[in-house]
Amino acid sequence: MTGSAHPAMMKCRNHGDAIMSLTPFRVHVPDEDLSRIRERIRSYRWHRFPEPRDAADWRYGPPAAWMRALCEYWLTEYQWREAERNINAAEHFLTNIDGQELHFVHERGSGARPRPLLIIHGWPYTFASYLHLLEPLAHPERFGGREEDAFSVVIPSLPGYDFSPPPATPIGPRRIASLFNELMTQALGYDEYLVHGGDWGSAIAEMLGFHHRAHIRGLHLTMQSVRHHGAAPRTGAVSENADANERSFAAREAELWKNESAYARIQATKPLKLAYSMFDSPVGVAAWIAEAFHAWSDLSQRSFGDAISMDRLLTEIMLYLVTDSFGPSTWIYVAEGLEGYQTLPRGRSIEVPVALAAYRDPVFPMPPREVAALSHSVVRYTTMPTGGHFPFYEDPDALIDDLRGFARELR
Asked: What are the C-alpha distances in Å from 342 to residues 129, 166, 171, 290, 332?
């Protein structure tokens, strides 16, 4: 793990008698690690790399001209130490739950009764994707908002991502949900809390809502990963009594996935083969991650650079590199198949209140409300005007507003 755990330990008591130790943590990447990454980027043999005729064509992956520009910026302008300082502005902790060490950020909100909020990231991004939302969510009065809208925010790194070490064997959303529920209730003492998630974060949130509903006040999702019986996501499958809306959405979703699923198939079936290729190739990791950010962003109204800056993109990439977590981050794809959580048992649904923020995600579209309601207790459905798979970067203000609006409805 790259970073330093402080010798001081905090004790947090839950609603019973158990006590868990929380160790304060700071990120610090050794200079020699940064130098090694820079040297690998600098020595990449661009003169041998074939240049396609159309330098702006992303159909087959990031264009060479774009990748060269990214790497030049990486070497000459991007500053990891500045990103590291920004990351360390938050309070970081480590704790051990059932033998799994977890890293998380915890920001206590303003006022007498801030609502506990668990934010769960996905792939190919990290806990750091949400750090710029931390203050507005926890301290809205500092940004012209109301103190009574404050959240106490918890943002963990998924097992195998960033500063949460890999699990002993691949674990999926159901098991991670159990770990995160223990983090919230046993380690931090929150009996009841809200959950926000997209990508893998949505699947883990839905498992929390289904298996740990006594502790879940509500789910706020930017992607729906769990469906009703018989209607596995992205397969084209529908339930026995599917209407035209369900059939139309399932067909559209499957068609989009057919053209974008190659990465997931590799990560789910040959993760070690991929890990060996990427382990010592910063340029390879950057290309693999950047392609997903480009393909899944809403670029209907602006350029990729306007949607997500190079600095933010490179910080996401660097967090995979400095922690050597690209390989372990793919294990959840293996575990997805082993757990088989994607559809609920016949006649069952997620009964906690659910808010769906339907962004213009070009690969993982949100189902229509009436389809989503077949598996979830949808109390709020917001069609967002802009933003795709990464709303924390693409339209953060709208994401914050929708989260606050949902929380107010649950009072």
From this structure: 25, 23, 15, 27, 13
